[in-house]
Amino acid sequence: MKILAVGDIVGENGLNKLKDLLPTIIEKENIDFTIVNAENTSGGMGLTDKDFNVLQKMKIDAITMGNHTWGKKDIFAFIDNPKIMRPANYSKGVPGKGYNIYECKGKKIAVMNLIGRTDMSILSENPFTVADELVNKLSKEADIIILDFHAEATAEKIALKNYLDGRVNIIFGTHTHVQTADEEITEKGTGYITDLGMTGPKKSVIGMDVSASIKRFLTSLPERYKLADGPAILNGCVFEIDDDTCKTIEVYRINYK
Known about the structure:
CATH topology: Purple Acid Phosphatase, chain A, domain 2
CATH class: Alpha Beta
Number of domains: 1
CATH superfamily: Metallo-dependent phosphatases
Number of strands: 14
Radius of gyration: 17 Å
Structural class: alpha/beta
Shape: globular
Largest sheet: 8 strands, mixed
Order of helices and strands: EEHEHEEEEHEHEEEEHEE
CATH architecture: 4-Layer Sandwich
Distance between the termini: 26 Å
């Protein structure tokens, strides 16, 4: 089984890039199951009903979110859709689910979403303890467990990789929008990459307008971020799972310009 994880969609240009390229990638790479992070899809923050409907028409099995989950109020109308999930360690009582279970090629695949706590400014529970609870539960219900860890700090992502090594099949990081070159299969068989990168404007600062971003750093004034224009890139990672053991046997990055 081959699983595709696509880095954060940033804005409408990123969404259009995914729409144009996903069928080709699925065919070329023989993909069976696709996950995308969509928390920056609509205007660079959140997900509207309109854009969610576009994603639903694509061959996407699971949609993860992050710190901008509630960026667009539309999401409250579809947050309970089984294709979408928000971080499982958000404060108790918020709508939506932090994981969902899907079926593919006779296997049950659990997809989890967690958010980091380092420099994220989001009220959340400890992702390590929540991961413990969920993995213990999902190991009895699913053949394959996949985690999107939406976090700022590289150290926090790598620490969680080591903490869950061998207990989940795949861990990929999202949020920083810069693809890392550290894809690996760990000692105990977990497929891992610190960050998938992004699917959004190439000439940008992590998807945002270059001049506005530079002005923020030059002056420290609260310049409003705005989306960059122009052609987009698509970053992601392919994980191949052994059909008999459900272990990850290959990991490789993809980059389309």
